[in-house]
Amino acid sequence: MAERDLDNTGMLGELRRMVQTTGTVGGIAARFAGHKMGLRSGGASHAEDLKSVLGGLKGPLMKAAQLLSTIPGALPDDYAKELAELQANAPPMGWNFVRRRMTAELGAGWEKNFRSFGREAAAAASLGQVHQAVLTDGRRVACKLQYPDMKAAVESDLRQFRMAIGVYHRLDNAIRQDDVVEELTERLREELDYRREAANMRLYRAILADCPEVTVPAPIDEFSTQRLLTMEWVSGRGLNAAIEAGLTEEQKQKIARSLFRAWYLPLYQYGVVHGDPHMGNFTLRDDYGLNLLDFGAIRIFSPSFIKGNIDLYRALQTGNKALATEAYAAWGFDGLTSEKVDVLNEWAGFLFAPLMDDRERFIQEDTTGVFGRDVLTKVHEGLQRTGGVKLPREFVLVDRSAVGLGSVFMRLKVKMNWYQLFHEIIAEFDEQALAARQKAAIEAAHFPDGFQAP
Asked: What is d(CA 199, CA 197) in angstroms, rounded to the nearest whole number?
């Protein structure tokens, strides 16, 4: 009964969520329409209100908004600016929720498994919150507790999200996001299963076993369930705090190298991406290595898709438009004309530019952001002019990672030879070797029943 009371996933829970979100999404749709007709109706102030409402909803609608903020032209500028700042820092729920969640997952008397259990949340995000605890054997652990009614929230929010996107599509044809919504749907449903997240952690521990600059905490399986994830506690401090305290160039370069390898070694050597690189999902060790956290948004790609990424990089390096066209096809773009390929190359060239420049440089040399906005505007206008594109599902988290990680490097204000870092990882790329490494890592991760390899 406690389980049903806590996680009412039936019609009542979905109806309650829809009442919460319908006004918000209806307002988004109306303001989208006003934006396209030249009516600003509050502009940035409405976007600020929207950010506040989404942050309080503690759910997938906020994640959807964060993701859309990284795709060129997917949102009007005011909304993209505000939603890009959402960092999933929703207020935590109180002790009554914690006690009920722990009882539902571990049974009555769950406290006997712990020497101590922190009543106050150490961190709070969009789908759950984290408490620090000590097991009876003395191990310090983090217990991630899923908020109540999240299944209903996901299903309700996804319907609302589809409605908002449908309205926007009728107003702007540059980016067709049908597959983006399907990708988001699948990833969000996966994030609700903490057994899947525990397997993702084991996957990353296997992938990064020989990468000493990155720590991946181990899940504690005997105290984990579908809605409770217990893992090793790893100590570290936030990047913002470290920047504000002051960092030397050497320290910044150590951090940048750790971040780069934590994201791109899994992608280009194993076909796996961590799709959420914002600064709340990692902490810094005392040696300026990295603790990597939150493994809900993990995507595994086919080896052929990774080859398409590298082919696109090499096509941009050499100006080989035919190879670029083949690469986009491998990504899942279809109906491409010569002009559409030129437009897509503008965006890809912007993202890959630091990786093609064999010298120490900032990740984006125009620190004002004007150049980036100009590129986005040019891409958006070009896609509108040429009839638009349908974004393939595989594009979503790769783009999110590149943009998100680039934002972190900009915040760090670090100069690196990004070309050399990248070539360390892709120097001996071989599609079949990647497939073999990926298969071994997936087997080591012990995914729950129902998992399907790409």
From this structure: 5
Reported as a single tens digit per residue, the pLDDT across 64-119 is 666 665 555 555 566 555 555 544 445 688 999 999 999 999 999 999 999 999 99
* pLDDT (tens digit per residue) in 198-220: 999 999 999 999 999 999 999 99
Which of helix, strand or coil describes residue 300? strand
Concatenated DSSP letters for 112-127?
GGEEEE-SS-SEE-SS
CA distances from 102 to 106, 116, 184, 296 (A): 6, 14, 28, 20
The residues near 401 (Cβ < 8 Å, ≥ 6 apart) are 263, 267, 273, 274, 275, 277
Classify each residue of 260-286 as buried b or exposed e, where b means 16 or more C-beta atoms within 10 Å of its C-beta.
bbbbbbbbbbbbbbbbbbbbbbbbbbe
Weakest-pLDDT range from 78-92, 130-144, 292-306, 419-433 = 78-92
Over its C-alpha atoms, the chain yields an Rg (Å, rounded) of: 22
* Half-sphere exposure in the Cβ direction for 25 (13 Å, CA): 25
Q: Please, are residues 445 and 203 in contact by the beta-carbon 8 Å criterion?
A: yes
Q: Is the pLDDT of residue 321 over 50?
A: yes
pTM of the model: 0.85
**Amino acid present at 392:** P
Token readout for 307 is 């080859």
